[in-house]
Specification:
Two copies of one chain form a homodimer.
Chain A lengths: L2 H8 L3 H9 L6 H14 L5 H8 L4 E6 L5 H16 L3 E6 L4 H11 L6 E5 L5 H9 L4 E4 L7 E5 L1 H14 L5 E6 L4 H17 L9 E4 L3 H14 L4 E4 L2 H13 L9 E3 L16 E4 L1 H16 L8 E4 L1 E4 L12
Parallel strand pairs in A: 1-2, 1-3, 3-4, 4-5, 5-11, 6-7, 6-8, 8-9
Antiparallel strand pairs in A: 10-12
Helix pairs in contact in A: 1-2, 1-3, 2-3, 5-12, 6-7, 8-9, 10-11
The structure holds a DNA duplex (16 and 16 nucleotides).
Chain lengths: ~325, ~325
DNA sequence: TTGTATGCGTTATCAT
DNA sequence: ATGATAACGCATACAA
């Protein structure tokens, strides 16, 4: 069923049908009703592809996520879909499984007029990313990383880690371990580690190589890195840069016959939904991932509508969530 | 940049450029190279919308999910994306936020030739769903619910619950409570409840209204329903139809000064990623959600390729995960 | 082996 | 107020 068929059935021209469908232009009430009747009867729905070609607008935004099966990604997506729905937009999603090359491919593919704008939630920003991004003919918003020349939605990694360290120090901790991730991820790998070092320094605590371990984003990695730290020295507290790492670390501590927080306190970052249902409930930083998705989408639409083309760096709020995985220790350690 | 421009720059006709891009038809090596060179130099990418209109194929599949921010949904999506990627397909995702009306809308919208096929992960199948589904001009695969006339990917809810009850009975439990969800969700609300009743019956245990409570899918609901059961009678074990309900129930039990599993054993269904990191680790049923996504996508592609148009009901595997949240009790209760 | 011309389904311009 | 028609960018039948 195409517009022509409807026109024939209703005894009008295709142009009139189009006018009825889009509620613009003049059309006599009588004809309008005739057309509407036919449309209802045959259940006609316009071909969105043809509309997009003609309108040069697909009403679709592309979203590139590193791993869709993570809680972070799905919360961000929820925020994006919410704003998109208000604007009558659909989401085309590319799951890149943490493969850089896939990210580049997705970026290129989506740029072919298929989408009106792109949101990328990146773990790493390479020169290649930049090169491809600069070629884009549609607006791009980045979540989670800084990308020169594009608006970015950022998490306050520096402040959040400082708050966490402050909290630990106030609880009397002086030997604070750290479990991080690869520095290729600039925001999570570098910024959070640097913040940890700065915070130690700020409290006049020494930075000790033996208390630091670098893993990936898995729970298992948290376990392994904790094990490697315990082999060298025993901290009284550990700051893990994600909740999953913290959860793995806690498991490892327990398996070593130690207790959290009695022997070792642990903190994470992110506040996964189950963080407060763990035993002990995990002290962490709540990030408003859904909000970041909403912000990214709003900014993107501003650019699509050419309302505001300047590139911003927007920091999304966070909140320290103090729970039982951190314990005060005696003042004479 | 369109195909015409490339043609001009390379000194050939648009048709030749098209042939080069799609690697079909004959074209002299020399011209091919010239065209490829221009394409590389200007970074030409074809307009996917125009291709779709011409080819009557968008290489996009639509996916409708009830709530994208759930672990279940994201694991299913991961499976779908994986298969889709192999076929060079993109995903257009509609997040319906558990709103029936949204589901219908999405179904209608996606059917407009925009996508080559649709996968819907439904919580409820109404007559309206059926009516719209029957009008579709593209294939449809359903995940998680039975839908007459369409192929469905189903979870073995009946068997899984039986296994769970068997496990509890073998551990000596006779007063087994139940926390379920609204029967509108046929598979989770009805089938799982019926299986619970059948299993009790099979073990010659009485069904007691006071031990049963119905909530929604949230952790909080698990908490509330557990509280309502405890007010009436105290079971020795509780079967919750999702892990989240189980987690809420455990929290409630703890808050009432009781212990899991010493006082009350608890089981869930689904095996969320953190289930084994809870205290106590949660006994549950592992569902292969990612696999179900893969199966759904494979079946959909079979239908898109018209390889196999028969409607199947495919059950995806499950596995009982016995952990510490269930405790053997003395034989003289 | 290559080019020309037509059509995919819609919207919008221009007459009428 | 309405209808005829060109154009969106691409692929392909047909001609050459």
């Amino acid at each position: 069923m195409k517009i022509k068929d409807i026109a024939k059935l209703a005894g009008v021209s295709p142009a009139t049908v189009s006018r009825v469908m889009n509620k613009n232009g003049y059309v006599k009430a009588e004809k309008r009703e005739a057309v509407e009747k036919v449309i209802r009867e045959v259940g006609y729905r316009p071909n969105e592809i043809a509309k997009s070609l003609k309108n040069k607008r697909s009403n679709i935004i592309g979203v590139i996520v590193p791993k869709i099966s993570t809680e972070t990604a799905s919360r961000v997506l929820e925020g994006i879909t919410q704003i998109a729905k208000e604007r009558n937009y659909q989401l085309l999603i590319s799951n890149t499984n943490l493969q850089i090359e896939e990210e580049i491919n997705a970026l290129e593919f989506l740029s072919n007029k298929l989408v009106d704008g792109i949101i990328i939630s990146a773990t790493e920003v390479t020169d290649q990313h930049l090169a491809v991004a600069r070629q884009l003919t549609v607006p791009l918003v980045v979540i989670g990383q800084r990308m020169a020349g594009f608006t970015s939605i950022l998490y306050s990694n520096n402040h959040a880690v400082h708050d966490l360290v402050d909290h630990l120090v106030q609880a009397g901790h002086k030997k604070i371990g750290f479990i991080g991730v690869d520095p290729k991820d600039k925001e999570v790998g570098q910024v959070r580690k640097q913040a940890y070092m700065d915070a130690l320094n700020h409290h006049q605590l020494p930075y000790k190589e033996e208390l630091v371990a670098i893993g990936d984003f898995s729970i298992e990695s948290g376990y392994q890195q904790m094990a490697s730290i315990l082999k060298k020295q025993r901290p009284t507290a550990v700051l893990a840069v994600t909740d999953h790492l913290a959860i793995g670390a806690i498991q490892c501590i327990k398996d070593n016959g130690l207790s959290v927080p009695a022997d070792i306190s642990v903190t994470g970052l992110g506040d996964v939904k189950l963080a407060k249902y763990l035993s002990p409930p995990l002290t962490t930083v709540h990030y408003y991932f859904k909000t970041s998705g909403q912000l990214a989408a709003s900014e993107l639409f501003n650019q699509i509508d050419q309302l505001n083309m300047e590139n911003k760096e927007i920091y999304v709020d966070y909140e320290l969530r103090i729970r039982a995985s951190v314990k005060k220790i005696e003042r004479n350690s």
